[in-house]
């Protein structure tokens, strides 16, 4: 696509097929095969010795936190290795021995690179030095750090208002880097801090905040070991949080039951062969799911309502299915909820859900009799128009059962990026936090802005409309991760300057503003050296525990800076000594940075000491059953409506999901082995009866078209794969299908794009 800067870059890259091979979907996850794949990936990217010695430090108390997902580490990490196949892939991707240096950019123009696939781009290696793409040029050229900082400062100074700048964050950054970045954005004068969680668990944050008073989960890892029931809804842990399977296994061994709700029967939820145990390697492993409810896409609310209705009927008879003492003491809205349930007929709800009634009855019988319930969920619930209500319906169930604030029970939104929760805790948010603003004023002596900033959806629109002109990304891959690829690309290309602080090359570095800067930074596994000594930083896991992480590998190049140093460099150049914050000192001294963080945010007081050893839990009011911040000091039941999908003939609902070989837009490989797809990503999973209706055969080539708001959006060339998925539903991979997700279609209240319920038609080619 030609843009105003005369660069002819592709926003999606190659759509060539790569040579598909199909096999039966797997009946279990992990096992020996996972060990083999782990070693293959790490040895290839890192070399054998380096791979083995580095893996032994991952998720260990004196080592570094896995750069993959945010699942917590057990109190006593296994000495055999506390990592999973996909954590090892995340590490090898970061610790690769390949390099993208100035000669790489001299050889390849951004126009040429943009034609490569994301897989190919990502495999090029680690960035080694700051680079600039000047107006009208198509090759990146080297630039010094100081000149880079000056260039950013100049562009920020030239804006008419600080609200014309966007400060995006992905969830890999440390607490220290994120705190400093948020501080600079506020000192500069804007709350325009969109972050990846806007596209991810924002719906969870909103729903949990409104019902329970904290936008985070309430369980700790140990709770899984004593839960009587774990419900896993809209989540694929076998691929995206593999170490969660060890927790589910322990729950099962201790007599717990697992109920899964998902349009797909994911391999990792069927059976787990724990590679850390002999039984897992040589034996048949542990069955995970006891009851699978194969819901239609986005029909979780009808299904949950039906479960609640059936439980309420049982409770009416015996009075001991619900925890009435808990309901009376801690909650508000019980009567309204029960009344609302009366409005629905069981048969309507059953039909909408698409699940067999006998399976639902089995789940109801189990839920009726047990009291310690954990509900886990991820993107299958959050990325819908009614994402917030999906989660509120889960909270309703937990409140009815009194399954909060006690061992073995509670909410568990399973986070994505390894420090996405920490970034929010230390100030990455577009909305205004009074506590934070007051803390900043008291500690640093300046007033933070009080106007709400742009989240991701609104940031894209602002850039598209020419209302924002400078984009800075602290990690992430904005062009590929955000919905509506063409629209988002235009938004970025409208900017005067786009800056990316990154470890590796990605599409956002190619789909740029008039001028672009590429600032290479240290990754999680790299040693962050000061005067020759490695430093640590802190992160927060999915369960609210803050702990240290210290990289062990020599940095990918001598010319990298840490994220705090880069943010400090920008701030220092911008303020040039005219600001109450001593940016240079603060960004160079992490101890000082943490001390200040603890002064601004009381939850982080004494973090320098408390983060030692296993770390410490941040305060969590649900664990204490303290609902004092909510209306009438009570946890809130919610009355939720039904999701609405009026499909015309020929329309399907598409969920855009992850394969087993990717981390978001980073493509590790071309296989999705648990689903039986090898060496190809351009596939669409479809029910065989739907295929028959459309006269489609296996591996036929189709285009997918979405027409929200009468605008045609097309994703071309996908191979049809017959699969066990409800009729009327489709699944395909992200980011290839982001082009179909409308930028202006998002969840109520949370503004999360509806990546899991895109209405599409199919065009045979
Ligand atoms: N290896 C690896 N690990 C990762 C990531 C990665 O890409 N790779 N990404 C990280 C990030 S940022 C995140 S947010 C998490 C994502 O973790 P997940 O949320 O597990 O990721 P998705 O592939 O988006 O899977 C969504 C699951 O929800 C189901 N689903 C879709 N729609 C519905 C629905 O309407 N109802 C129900 N009940 N289920 C539905 C899908 O079938 C699928 O199993 O993983 C994190 N960890
Ligand atoms: N259609 C569709 N769209 C989605 C989703 C979906 O399910 N469907 N999921 C959404 C979700 S849940 C999320 S979280 C977002 C993800 O959105 P992002 O977080 O923006 O995307 P990632 O692919 O995780 O970003 C990867 C890039 O981060 C950089 N990076 C890696 N490690 C580091 C580091 O340590 N420091 C720095 N500075 N940079 C680093 C590398 O350059 C890498 O290319 O995508 C969202 N988009
Ligand atoms: Mo995410």
Automatic annotation (TrEMBL):
InterPro entries reported for this sequence: Asp_de-COase-like_dom_sf, MopB_CT_YdeP, MoPterin_dinucl-bd_dom, Mopterin_OxRdtase, Mopterin_OxRdtse_a_bac, Prok_molybdopt-oxidoreductase
Molybdopterin dinucleotide-binding domain location: 652-757
Alphabetical UniProt keywords: Iron, Iron-sulfur, Metal-binding
CDD domains assigned: MopB_CT_ydeP (cd02787)
Domain Molybdopterin oxidoreductase: 126-503
Domain of life: Bacteria
Official protein name in the record: FdhF/YdeP family oxidoreductase
């Amino acid at each position: 696509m030609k843009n105003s800067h005369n660069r002819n870059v592709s926003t999606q890259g190659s759509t060539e097929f790569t040579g598909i091979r199909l096999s039966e979907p797997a009946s279990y996850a992990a096992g020996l095969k996972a060990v083999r794949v782990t070693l293959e990936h790490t040895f290839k990217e890192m070399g054998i010795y380096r791979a083995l010695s580095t893996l032994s430090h991952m998720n260990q108390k004196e080592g570094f936190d896995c750069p993959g997902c945010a699942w917590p580490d057990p109190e006593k990490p296994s000495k055999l290795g506390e990592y999973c196949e996909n954590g090892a892939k995340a590490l090898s991707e970061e610790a690769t021995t390949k390099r993208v240096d100035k000669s790489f950019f001299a050889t390849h123009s951004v126009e040429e690179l943009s034609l490569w696939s994301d897989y190919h781009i990502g495999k090029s290696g680690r960035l080694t030095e700051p680079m600039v793409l000047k107006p009208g040029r198509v090759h990146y050229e080297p630039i010094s750090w100081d000149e880079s900082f000056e260039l950013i400062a100049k562009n920020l100074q030239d804006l008419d208002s600080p609200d014309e700048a966007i400060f995006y964050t992905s969830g890999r950054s440390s607490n220290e880097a994120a705190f400093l970045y948020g501080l600079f954005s506020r000192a500069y004068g804007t709350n325009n801090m969109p972050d990846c969680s806007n596209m991810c668990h924002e719906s969870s944050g909103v729903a949990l905040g409104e019902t329970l008073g904290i936008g985070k989960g309430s369980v700790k890892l140990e709770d899984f070991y004593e839960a009587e029931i774990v419900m896993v809804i809209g989540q694929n842990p076998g691929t995206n949080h593999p170490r969660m399977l060890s927790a589910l296994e322990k729950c099962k061994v201790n007599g717990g039951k697992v109920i899964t709700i998902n349009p797909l029967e994911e391999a990792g939820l069927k059976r787990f062969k724990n590679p850390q145990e002999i039984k897992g390697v040589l034996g048949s492993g542990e069955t995970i799911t006891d009851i699978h409810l194969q819901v239609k896409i986005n029909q979780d609310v009808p299904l949950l309502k039906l479960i609640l209705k059936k439980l309420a009927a049982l409770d009416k008879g015996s009075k001991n299915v619900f925890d009435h003492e808990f309901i009376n003491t801690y909650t508000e809205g019980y009567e309204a909820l029960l009344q609302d349930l009366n409005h629905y007929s069981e048969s309507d709800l059953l039909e909408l859900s698409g699940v067999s009634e006998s399976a639902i009855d089995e789940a109801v019988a189990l839920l009726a009799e047990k009291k310690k319930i954990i509900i886990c969920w991820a993107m299958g619930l959050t990325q819908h128009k009614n994402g917030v209500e999906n989660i509120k319906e889960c909270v309703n169930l937990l409140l009815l059962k009194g399954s909060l604030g006690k061992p073995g029970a509670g909410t568990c939104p399973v986070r994505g990026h390894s420090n996405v929760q920490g970034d929010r805790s230390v100030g990455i948010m577009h909305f205004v936090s009074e506590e934070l603003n007051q803390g900043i004023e008291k500690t640093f002596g300046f007033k933070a802005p009080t106007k709400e900033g742009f989240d991701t959806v609104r940031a894209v629109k602002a850039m598209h409309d020419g209302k924002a002109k400078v984009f800075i990304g602290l990690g992430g891959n904005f062009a590929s991760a955000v919905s509506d690829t063409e629209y988002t690309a235009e938004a970025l290309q409208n900017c005067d300057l786009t800056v990316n602080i990154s470890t590796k090359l990605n599409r956002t570095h190619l789909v740029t503003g008039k001028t672009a800067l590429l600032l290479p930074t240290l990754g999680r596994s790299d040693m962050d050296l000061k005067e020759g000594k490695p430093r640590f930083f802190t992160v927060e896991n999915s369960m609210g525990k803050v702990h240290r992480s210290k990289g062990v590998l020599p940095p990918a190049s001598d010319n990298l800076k840490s994220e705090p140093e880069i943010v400090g460099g920008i701030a220092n150049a911008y303020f040039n000594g005219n600001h109450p914050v001593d940016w240079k000192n603060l960004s160079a001294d992490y101890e000082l940075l943490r001390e200040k963080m603890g002064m601004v945010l009381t939850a982080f007081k004494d973090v320098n000491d408390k983060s030692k050893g296993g770390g410490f839990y941040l305060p969590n009011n649900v664990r204490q059953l303290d609902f004092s911040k909510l209306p009438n000091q009570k946890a809130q039941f919610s009355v939720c409506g039904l999701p609405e999908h009026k499909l015309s003939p020929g329309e399907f609902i598409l969920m855009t999901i992850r394969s087993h070989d990717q981390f978001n837009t980073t493509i590790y490989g071309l296989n999705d082995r648990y689903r039986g797809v090898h060496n190809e990503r351009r596939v669409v999973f479809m029910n065989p009866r739907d295929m028959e209706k459309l006269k489609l055969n296996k591996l036929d080539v189709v285009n997918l078209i979405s027409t929200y708001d009468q605008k045609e959006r097309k994703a071309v060339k996908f191979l049809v794969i017959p699969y066990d998925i409800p009729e009327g539903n489709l699944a395909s991979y992200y980011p290839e299908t982001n082009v179909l997700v409308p930028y202006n279609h998002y969840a109520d209240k949370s503004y999360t794009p509806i990546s899991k319920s895109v209405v599409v038609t199919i065009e045979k080619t």
